[in-house]
């Protein structure tokens, strides 16, 4: 089976999200390739072409603030579909956009004018929290869904495959300082796994440290970059959720 095609524009959807209901996607990244600090084995967009923490060389391939404003306004002018969320996601890590904080402001501006019922959300892999402009933008994002799939450095390196300069301990520390966010974790088996006893113990310890207001766990349900991965069944996911919630005191939901 083939992985999904990349988003060919700034606005996509709305899609019926497992976590966010009716969500209108906002892609701040290039259309022709995936730009990400991770190269996750399970990514349903396939392997990362530009695997870097510096988006500077890709700047001309990314939308401007004015282009995002126009794309959103044009979509609302042509559609009457009610939406619940305006969600930064797309072809990689949205926080890599050099003007991420300004993007948040322009989306909020258009939202306030044309869809005041909607909330601004972000799906992020948590690797850009060292950047002041990202931290500033995040303060204005109403629903922050941040990633932490693994409980140990070796599993992080094997499953998420971060680019040079991204350190596991730093990601965890930054999440611990973020406050008021939802944590998402993708659990996999097969050619690589983050569901073994030692790995889960480390992951639960990290949950207790970073203290999200909620944890959302799920497994793969689409073709992944590494075809050797296997889905973690719902029964096992529910068992992990119960164990993690009892140990950390944080609500853990299965999707």
Description:
With 255 residues, the protein is α/β, with parallel strands linked by helices. The protein has a domain at 11-183: Aldolase class I (TIM Barrel), CATH 3.20.20. 33% of the residues lie in helices and 21% in strands. It contains 7 helices and 12 strands. It has helices at 65-78, 100-114, 132-138, 153-160, 168-178, 197-210, 234-248, and strands at residues 11-17, 21-27, 35-36, 50-51, 85-89, 119-124, 143-147, 182-186, 188-190, 214-218, 229-231, 252-254. The strands form 3 sheets. An 8-stranded mixed β-sheet has the order 1-2-5-6-7-8-10-12. Strands 3-4 form a two-stranded parallel sheet. β1 and β2 (21-27) form a beta hairpin. α2 (100-114) runs parallel beside α3 (132-138) and α6 crosses α7. The chain is globular, with a radius of gyration of 18 Å. The model has no long low-confidence stretch (mean pLDDT 97).
Content of β-strand: 15-25%
Would you count the extended β strands for me?
12
For the record, the CATH architecture of the domain at 11-183 stands as Alpha-Beta Barrel
Largest beta sheet, briefly? Answer: 8 strands, mixed
